[in-house]
Amino acid sequence: MKKINLKNILRKTFKKSSTKKIRKKKVNKIKKKTKKVRVKIIKKIIKKKPIKKVIAHKPKINNLRITKNVEQKPEIKKIKKQETAKREYKLKDYIVYPKHGVGQILSVSSKTIGEIEVQCYEIKFEKDKAIGLLPINKQIHLRPLSTINQVNKSIYILKSKPKIKRSMWSRRAQEYEQKITSGKIYDLAEVVRDLNKGDDLMVDQSYSERQLFEKAYERILSEFQIVMNISREETQKKLNKALKRNLEVQITNIETKQAEIVETPK
């Protein structure tokens, strides 16, 4: 059996306890130092930037219903001046307005529309016997009269064969209406060419076809008259010649048919 040394055992036990105590003391010292450093840093921050407590004041809602006076209405800013634009047309110039046809500029006047001063063209339309107003800012919608070369080309279109689509009349009528309101002379010539029936105009055409034809025919006739500087009868003769329409023959045919209807016994 080995001999037990009490001295060695006591030394070992006392050494462990002492080392543990020393370690605990060191850890406590480090913690205290870190706490002190943190407190110092916080104090410096508070001195530099004092913290303000923000209290949100909530509105007291007594009633759930909101009155009309509380609602904020949007502010409407009124424009008192019209945008500047240069005049493209002079007085007594003939122009074409797509919706109304050929017109003549009588004067340029300023008028107040909704507390705004607006400079307008005063345009006279002889066919409608009316005077229209158009702001100078919207003179893009107008166009000058066509040239003689354009008139000759449109007469060539009138002489050519009609191009009728095999679609429903409602669709074709919409297309013709769009071409008429476009104000382009070539489109007008195409409409007149396609809806032309020659001598059998009153017999073969429906009311809507005849109405569209007359509308396009009158517009192109009035423009041709001013461009070629001839009378209305002469321009009409030229158009009818291009379209191969004989109005005199047409009138005699209608009169003979009416006479036959009257003479037939009941």
What would you call the structural class? Answer: alpha+beta
Calculate Rg over CA atoms.
Answer: 48 Å
Globally, the shape reads: elongated
CATH topology annotation of the domain at 148-263:
Methane Monooxygenase Hydroxylase, Chain G, domain 1
Could you give me the name of the CATH homologous superfamily of the domain at 148-263?
CarD-like, C-terminal domain
Helical residue percent? 40-55%
Largest sheet, described in full? Answer: 5 strands, antiparallel
Q: Count of helical segments?
A: 8
Instruction: Examine the secondary-structure arrangement and name the CATH architecture of the domain at 148-263.
Output: Up-down Bundle
Question: Mean pLDDT, rounded to whole units?
Answer: 76
Task: Give, in spatial order, the strands making up the sheet with the most strands.
Answer: 4-3-2-1-5
Order of helices and strands: HEEEEEHHHHHHH
Level-1 CATH class name of the domain at 148-263? Mainly Alpha
